[in-house]
Design a protein that fits this description.
The complex is a heterodimer of chains A (114) and B (114). With 114 residues, chain A is mainly β. Helix content of chain A is 0%, strand content 51%. Chain A has no helices and twelve strands. Chain A is globular, with a radius of gyration of 14 Å. The termini of chain A are far apart. Chain B has 114 residues and is an all-beta fold. Helices cover 0% and strands 48% of the residues of chain B. Chain B has no helices and eleven strands. In chain B, the strands form two sheets. In chain B, strands 2, 4, 5, 6, 9, 10 and 11 form a seven-stranded mixed sheet that branches. The termini of chain B are far apart. The relative contact order of chain B is 0.33. The chains are: A mainly beta (114), B mainly beta (114). At the A-B interface, strand 5, strand 6 and strand 10 of A face strand 5, strand 9 and strand 10 of B.
Chain lengths: 114, 114
């Protein structure tokens, strides 16, 4: 069975600080995909980033970056120079193959204060 | 491109009543998902359709929940009779399977059972 754990329930920062969200996953599959979604107060889940299990290269996309480490089953996500609009709940999710269900973590609420 | 549409956005009912939710996926997306998100938790898959066939309904409480996807496009999710613990946000998502499993979510329907 798949499992995703987000140990941080809430993080509060001041605008322009960096925020790192932790995600640890469990799966027996050798091929899988990891995602980060953002859920603002409006409620709609917004796709942010995706990484597949056979590509551990870490990347930066604008103010977002991620650190995928297969050896520790972690897929951490960083927002650089946070802004008030980044305030939301962030979910890490896992799927074993394209088109299969997402297994979500419990979410981390990020509050960015001006 | 229009996103995933859901209606109603909010619904308040009393326990033992019935309720139905509607979802219209992104045009061309063969896979449709219904998730239940209880307050403070990550979404949990209820049922997954591929065109108009069910792929996964292992976590659907079949004694009270039902879902259909006629003609492989729109879908409805029904609860009859509702229980207090059914209070949650019901999210519909769709994906074009060939594209890396990315799911696009609708705004959700917030159900309150009194």
């Amino acid at each position: 069975a798949q499992k995703v754990t987000q140990a941080q329930t809430e993080i509060s920062v001041v605008e322009k600080e960096d925020v790192t969200l932790d995600c640890v996953y469990e799966t027996r599959d050798t091929t899988y995909y990891l995602f980060w979604y953002k859920q603002p107060p409006s409620g709609e889940l917004v796709f942010l980033i995706r990484r597949n299990s056979f590509d551990e290269q870490n990347e930066i996309s604008g103010r977002y970056s991620w650190n995928f480490q297969k050896s520790t089953s972690s897929f951490n996500f960083t927002i650089t120079a946070s802004q008030v609009v980044d305030s939301a709940v962030y979910f890490c999710a896992l799927t074993k193959a394209a088109g299969n269900k997402l297994t979500f973590g419990g979410g981390t609420r990020v509050l960015v204060k001006p | 491109e229009a996103g995933v549409a859901q209606s109603p956005r909010y619904k308040i009912i009393e326990k033992r009543q019935s309720v139905a939710f509607w979802c219209n996926p992104i045009s061309g997306h063969a896979t449709l998902y219904w998730y239940q998100q209880i307050l403070g938790q990550g979404p949990k898959l209820l049922i997954q359709f591929q065109n108009n066939g069910v792929v996964d309904d292992s976590q659907l409480p079949k004694d009270r929940f039902s879902a259909e996807r006629l003609k492989g496009v729109d879908s409805t999710l029904k609860i009859q009779p509702a229980k207090l613990e059914d209070s949650a946000v019901y999210l519909c998502a769709s994906s074009f399977v060939r594209v890396m499993g990315e799911q696009f979510f609708g705004p959700g329907t917030r159900l309150t059972v009194l």
